[in-house]
Design goal:
This protein has 2 helices and no strands. The chain is mostly helical and about 70 residues long. It has a domain of about 35 residues. The longest helix is centred in the middle third of the chain and has 53 residues. The termini are far apart. The relative contact order is 0.05.
């Protein structure tokens, strides 16, 4: 019985370290995903503004198309 306890002495520490490693990788993945989401949202906002400006310019051109010589 003593040899079993002696062979199990460092197993809990290794299991705890592996658990912390897995948890840390999950947290890092969530942070990376959040950063990517913020970047994508910013790009989408710029594209929306560009589309709105293009629509406004196109409507101005079509309004003044009859004035072109």
């Amino acid at each position: 019985m003593k040899t079993t306890a002696h062979s199990q002495q460092g197993v809990f520490l290794i299991e705890a370290l592996i658990g912390i490693l897995i948890f840390s990788l999950g947290v890092l993945a969530m942070v990376a995903l959040g950063t990517t989401a913020v970047s994508a949202q910013s790009d989408a906002q710029y594209r929306t503004e560009a589309a709105n400006l293009a629509t406004e310019i196109a409507s101005e051109i079509s309004l003044h198309a009859d004035r072109v010589p």
